[in-house]
Specification:
5 helices, Rossmann fold, globular, alpha/beta, 124 residues
Amino acid sequence: MADVKIPILIVDDEKELLEMYREFFEMDGFEVTTASSALEGIKVYGNNLNICLIISDSNMGEMSGVEFLKVLKSTYQTIPIFYLSTGELSQSEEYIKSLGGHGLLLKPFDLDEILIKIKKDLKL
């Protein structure tokens, strides 16, 4: 990747996963900001509009990933958001895209697959 680091936000209430995601994406040259709840993610993004992409978990306690997606898209229509799900949920990729999401990533997943989708979306 170029010397310019692409800023992304990752939102997940599992601290271990957040750290794993951070390390993986930073090794590939991204500037990673994390949030451990949907409400924190909304606040972080609102204060950092230079973030180019958001990756959000589907199940985060006080607010679901779908609610998070709806709130963000109601205010910030252009931010690409990828939605992480276990696949046990009824959400389909078509449903996530109908809400303004850029894609559904099913767990367990290969981080390299996510990286390919993100780079394609960001045209890197």
